[in-house]
Amino acid sequence: MARVTNAQPARRLMLVHAHPDDEVTGTGATMARYVAEGAQVTLVTCTLGEEGEIHVPSLAQLEAKQADQLGGWRVVELERACAALGVSDHRFLGGAGRYRDSGMMGLETNNHPRAFWQADLEEAARLCLEIMREVRPQVLITYDDNGFYGHPDHIQAHRVAMRAAELAEAEGFGPEKIYWTAMPLSVLEGGIEAFKGMDDNPFADVESVADLPFGHPDDEIAARVDGTDYYEQKVAAMRAHATQIPDNSWLYGIAGDFGGEFMGVEYFTIVKGERGEVSGPHKWESDLFSNVVTP
Ligand SMILES: CC(=O)N[C@H]1[C@@H](O[C@@H]2[C@H](O)[C@H](O)[C@@H](O)[C@H](O)[C@H]2O)O[C@H](CO)[C@@H](O)[C@@H]1O
Ligand SMILES: [Zn+2]
């Protein structure tokens, strides 16, 4: 049984994401910050994103219904994004190509025999456990039980990560703290105002934040990680995912109009472990490793 070696950094963060590009949008600044601070950041991506859209016209024929090569291309996009963030430890769950992108909830692609949505949970969790046993992360990040916005692969990534953490706990090396990606309602409400008048307004049809499948009251948020110093790395990593994030994406609008204030700050709820120092009106933690005692 592998044990923490002297060669491993003192602080170790593991993230379990569903598709290439998820690592950037929800946790890119957090990853870049902890890498810069000397932590080991291990990214686990569960699928290759084969069923995604393609926003690069010259690559359109790679789509699943044609050449079905988008997954391979997104492997390269992910490598480039990790390089931009400074992340050197990336794994595909079960190895590249083990689990296939299931497509949006309810689509026929959910039933593909290799779809992650069809994965045997125990088997997939044990594959995740193997990485956890090697890395022994003190902090684990994944999605909430709705996968943040209800995508089947995100829901499955949550289930696999949480089951792996449970199995690791039983073997005596579970993560000390577990966080789920989140967004405060106050930030979403600010976004709705800020986007009015933008061409690519993601909130165009949204009357109220209550209409969104995600968002937490500010007091339910546990941690606000300030990665504003790394927002340029985050934007560079977003650009690496060109098939998923088009040049006219609202995400770049935010980056342009608000800089690191929005793109460089990422939020989490906590579902395991004791928070360390908290501050501000909503008592948010600023360091995911605060209060960690596990060597
Ligand atoms: C951020 C994320 O999880 N993206 C997934 C998602 O992509 C969506 C999908 O292409 C949908 O058809 C679009 O309308 C929507 O705008 C996209 O965000 O689902 C894809 C298929 O499972 C997945 O490849 C992509 O990474
Ligand atoms: Zn995703």
Automatic annotation (TrEMBL):
Its EC number is 3.5.1.103. The gene is mshB. Keywords: Hydrolase, Metal-binding, Zinc. It catalyses: 1D-myo-inositol 2-acetamido-2-deoxy-alpha-D-glucopyranoside + H2O = 1D-myo-inositol 2-amino-2-deoxy-alpha-D-glucopyranoside + acetate. PANTHER family: 1D-MYO-INOSITOL 2-ACETAMIDO-2-DEOXY-ALPHA-D-GLUCOPYRANOSIDE DEACETYLASE (PTHR12993:SF26), N-ACETYLGLUCOSAMINYL-PHOSPHATIDYLINOSITOL DE-N-ACETYLASE-RELATED (PTHR12993). Belongs to the MshB deacetylase family. Gene3D superfamilies: LmbE-like. The keyword Secreted does not apply. This is 1D-myo-inositol 2-acetamido-2-deoxy-alpha-D-glucopyranoside deacetylase. Zn(2+) binds at H19, D22, H154. InterPro entries: GlcNAc_PI_deacetylase-related, LmbE-like_dom_sf, Mycothiol_biosynthesis_MshB.
